[in-house]
Amino acid sequence: MVACVITVKIQINAAPACADHRLFGNGHGGRATKDTDAEHQGAACDSTPKLKQGDVAMKRLLSLIALAATLAACSDASFIDSESFDHSQLSKRGDDAASSLKVMTRNMYVGANVDRIIEEPDPSLVPIRVAEEWARLQATDYPGRARAIAQEIVDNRPHLVGLQEVSLFRIQDPADLQLNATDVALDFLPILLNEIESAGGDYRVVGLIEDTDVEIPRLNTDFSLTDVRLTDYDVVLARADVEVDNVSTVNYQAYVPIPGISIKRGYVALDATVKGKTYRFVSTHLEPSSTYDGYFQALQAQELIATLAPEERPLIVVGDFNAFAPESPVYQAFLSAGYEDAWTLIAGDPGTGLTCCHVPDLDNALANFDRRIDLILFRNTEEIFSPGDGSIHGEVIGEEPTDKTDSGLWPSDHAGVVVRFQFASPAS
Prior knowledge:
This protein is an alpha+beta fold. The chain is built from eight helices and 17 strands.
């Protein structure tokens, strides 16, 4: 997660109903992906509006918060509480794949406290902060964490997995302070895929969106500088037996532009067919609510809700929403737009199932989560399964000490969430 504290004036390019059409390619094999953007075809985009931070931005922020609060107050979303939550209801290898759909969301954690770099007020200290966080990246042992996350995936056997903070680190020595480093130092995705295969899983990448791409100098022990480039992706994996079509990859129009850095967010949307039933599946990562009091997060959520509003097929949206459930206005806005929260239907209490956060070093003895921000939301599913008949089961993963890696670290700073939707029995 990235929280930004900046004092410079900024411009906001906000067109909530429009896509940002780009060709993403960074020279790294297999990662170039074109924005097919099926949801946004025909949308009218205004690329000109720009908004300076100050009175106008604050008025828009207050108006947006007021609107979200009004939507929350008017929400007619109802929830069916279960009498108790039994984790054993979520079967693993023995699940009836012929009659259910299982999905998973997992923030993989970049492995360092990027906030310390972004929030550093003294530019001369930024290379030192980069060096400190580079050391943390080594200490948090991504290969070991990837092995643990891969085992989670193989054990639970979800049909679809939404991954956030899938990171690619590249370096350039000596530094030239340009966005051009190409020497791969650590690439999360192929390591994870190799670990899944080694654990007996059969998954493939079916959607990938490049979000933030930034290069910053690191101070070395000999006082030289090395550029460190971090490229952040959202990725969707599909099990081998899942048919995928109509993939759309989109960066949100609203993002935080810091001088020299654009903190972009996005989503992957696709059609997934499981046992003859087709769904629209979306995985996203929204800006934290701490960034400008949730202003950018609200704009991104508004764009996603508006984009998906015409969708009439069964729709499942997963990801790191960075919106505290159930109190966040963004969370309430999704409910007001007709979405249901799978966890609330499973556990009966939207305040349970916390998913964040472990300490940045991932070495805390026990989970001490204080928020639920990793969500699985859905709508338009009445003809396939009914939330009221016990057809939704799930659990939080990665929050028990037994989930730690062999070196004693948590797999991520977040927990993951797995949900199984049981298909309704055919009418006799």
